[in-house]
Amino acid sequence: MVSGAADGIGRAIVLDFVRRGAVVHGLDRNLDALMRLDEIVTSDPRSTGRFVPHHVDLADREATDRAITVISTRLDGVCDVLVNNVGVSTIRAFADTDDQLLDTVIAVNFIAAFRITRHFLPALGASKQGVVVNIASELALIGQAGYAAYCASKGAVLAWSRALAVELAPAGIRVNVVCPGPIDTALLEADFAASGDGATARRTEIAAVPLGRLGTPFDIAAVVTFLASNAAAFVTGAAWAVDGGKTSA
């Protein structure tokens, strides 16, 4: 199950899994993008698995509960891999961050992942090799002006994931976190545009990455599918910075 599945990093994760033969249930509020992804999966000759789209806004708790109940039924109570990927980002000075914005960012970036994982816990346990991969951010590791609410939400994802890894280890459920750096997605492009000078913002961001480029969604997907695989059977409670060296510089 993958949340935030329709575009960017989520879409790459879905495609990587279905190309490995998985049946992937994907949640997203963007119906058009979900349908486009379904068409891509269906027409992709490399897709040996299947994609099942679910249209839901994860900020709506009741709608989310209904969707995950449907998914649990279709999975027959067994979930091998849960990827909490959904996220929203809004640039706003701390002094101007009102309660509505704070509530939305925390609800989508952290609370939705918390509640979805809690719901799927029995199904993950029934798998006997359940895996949770939470997508946080480089901003769970470092601070950045204008992102106080976002940093708080992704930092919460990181701390919660580490606690969950310890708590669920006796049940054989592994929990890891991926912290993407600047990834070339529509979400990052919107942040560049919000700066007032998108081209300069892009150049500045690339200059901060030791590897000299923005990441791609498939850079992240490759790490997610590795963490979900038996190759990572002894990996839990770890935070993987996939950022071209940015947080190490």
What does this structure look like?
It is a single chain. The protein has helices at residues 8-18, 31-43, 61-74, 99-127, 148-168, 186-194, 198-207, 217-228, and strands at residues 2-3, 23-28, 50-55, 81-84, 131-135, 174-180, 239-242. The mean pLDDT is 95. By secondary structure, the chain is of the alpha/beta class. It is 48% helix and 14% strand. Helix 1 (8-18) links the parallel strand 1 (2-3) and strand 2. 41% of the residues are buried. The chain is globular, with a radius of gyration of 17 Å. The strands form two sheets. Strands 4-5-6-7 form a four-stranded parallel sheet, sandwiched between helices. It has a three-stranded parallel sheet with strand order 1-2-3, with helices on one face.
Tell me the layout of helices and strands.
Blueprint: E1 2-3, H1 8-18, E2 23-28, H2 31-43, E3 50-55, H3 61-74, E4 81-84, H4 99-127, E5 131-135, H5 148-168, E6 174-180, H6 186-194, H7 198-207, H8 217-228, E7 239-242
Parallel strand pairs: 1-2, 2-3, 4-5, 5-6, 6-7
Helix pairs in contact: 1-8, 3-4, 4-5, 6-7
Outline type: globular
**Which structural class is indicated by helix and strand composition?**
alpha/beta
State the helix count.
8
Average pLDDT figure:
95
Can you give the helix content as a percent range?
Answer: 40-55%
| Rg | 17 Å
Q: Beta-strand percentage? A: 5-15%
Uncertain segments of ≥5 residues (pLDDT<50)? none
Q: What gap, in angstroms, lies between the N and C termini? A: 34 Å
Number of DSSP-assigned strands: 7
Give the spatial strand order of the biggest sheet.
4-5-6-7
Helix and strand run: EHEHEHEHEHEHHHE
The profile of the biggest β sheet is: 4 strands, parallel
